[in-house]
Amino acid sequence: MDKTNKRLVKDVGKLVSLDYEIEIKADNMSEFTIILDGPQDSPYEGGKWKLLVTLPEQYPYKSPSIGFLNKIFHPNIDEASGSVCLDVINQTWSPMYELRNVFEVFLPQLLLYPNPTDPLNGDAANLMMTDKDKYEAKIRSYVKKYGSLDKVGANDEADQEPEEEAKVEDSDGDNSSDPASQLSDTPGVNSDKELSDEDDDMDDSQDDSDK
Fold first, then answer.
1. Which end of the chain is more exposed for a tag (fewer CB within 10 A), N or C?
2. Do 158 and 96 share a structural domain?
3. Residues 60, 95 contacting (CB under 8 angstroms)
């Protein structure tokens, strides 16, 4: 085993010893998932995110690839793909850094101190700069909706189901589509009762003429 692979195994082993929840995806430990908790005293507090970590063959001389698997509202994290914009990972990575630095320092600091001038999520960046209260409220709503491990891979389609069901219920209670109702409301078209009354009148007239 070469020096790079030894370093990879060592760094992953440190995360395990620090009680991080890790699931190894590759035999050589080059891909795994890890659980990240939202920092205390922040809008992300109480949230849990599963991250996919991929380590290149050249690790630690090349940086790890990190992506969020459940949604998070943050200026520097792409909402759709979960990719992270962080200089210390993407541009200024050094072999001196360890994986524990990423999850103990770099990512928690990113959640606490976003950089809205270099966003991956323009809506989050704009809201942060224009209305901080609404920005933090939206973060909390995302934490409540997506910030748990059972929401990994969740999308907005499931969130729309209750609304669609409500529309179906409304249509069931509305008789505007009932053909009989439409006929009775149409000018010049008589209801069954009116037709029955007309038939009775015609019978009476016929009887009078016979007499």
1. C
2. yes
3. yes
Could you list the active site residues? 85
pLDDT digits (tens, 9 = 90+) for 141-182: 999 999 999 888 766 544 443 334 334 444 444 544 444 444
Beta carbons within 8 Å of 183's beta carbon, 6+ residues apart:
189, 191
Q: Pick the closest to residue 38 from 122, 143, 116 (CA basis).
A: 143
**Distance of alpha carbon 122 from alpha carbon 111, whole angstroms:** 16
The number of domains in the chain is 2
Q: Which domain, by its residues, includes 195?
A: 175-210
Residue 143 and residue 68 share a domain: yes
Q: Is residue 106 domain-shared with residue 159, that is, in the same domain?
A: yes
CATH of the domain at 19: 3.10.110.10
Average pLDDT of every residue of the chain: 81
Q: What one-character DSSP code corresponds to residue 27?
A: T
Q: HSE-up of 171 (CA within 13 Å, CB side)?
A: 7
